[in-house]
Amino acid sequence: MDSTKKNNPVYSQSDTSKVEITDAEWKKILPEDVYYIARQKGTERPWTSKYENLKEKGTYYCAACGNALFQSDTKFESGCGWPSFYQPISKTSIIYTPDHTHGMERVEVQCGRCKAHLGHVFEDGPPPTGLRYCINGVVLDFEKAKEAEKTYNDKSKKE
Ligand SMILES: [Zn+2]
């Protein structure tokens, strides 16, 4: 996969500067399903994500902006129907916001770079964190370890 996306000028796997654009602009650059979840806090139907059972080694990025979110080695089978992880890549890759909607007390997780809605975090995950990041697969981009390595090598060659 490319580290840039057609029609999405903010998508980058190397630029870590915050993305602050209007919803109208997001609507123009994101596919409809990504926009619905990332910007309108939608939820994909459970068991529909191609990443739900994916066990390949690699990195999961924000589908809206390319921010690295999770490594495959922190992914686990939660049985909840959505891709689940017990730990984000770094403290700053995710933003936490209290969510009181639908009569529940939950913690919403958003992309640390573009504030896309990703899903929720629950305290019933496995060790070492005991957390379960329950993430909509639609807002994730997966890149296999080998390809990520190649991208890295290409980049360091250029620099
Ligand atoms: Zn993002």
Question: Describe it for me?
Answer:
With 159 residues, the protein is α+β, with helices and mostly antiparallel strands. The chain has a single domain, classed as Metal Binding Protein, Guanine Nucleotide Exchange Factor, Chain A. It has 3 helices and 9 strands; from the N terminus they run H-H-E-E-E-E-E-E-E-E-E-H. It has helices at residues 23-29, 32-38, 145-158, and strands spanning 58-62, 68-71, 75-76, 84-85, 94-99, 106-111, 117-122, 132-135, 140-144. The strands form 2 sheets. It has a 6-stranded antiparallel sheet with strand order 3-4-8-7-6-5, with no helix packed on it. Strands 2-1-9 form a 3-stranded antiparallel sheet. A hairpin with a 7-residue loop joins strand 3 (75-76) and strand 4. 37% of the residues are buried. The model has no long low-confidence stretch (mean pLDDT 92). Residues 62, 64-65, 67, 111, 113-114, 116 line the site of zinc ion.
Helix/sheet category: alpha+beta
Describe the global form: globular
- State the fourth-level CATH superfamily: Peptide methionine sulfoxide reductase
**Termini Cα gap:** 20 Å
Going across the major beta sheet, what is the strand order? 3-4-8-7-6-5
CATH architecture classification: Beta Complex
Oligomeric category: single chain
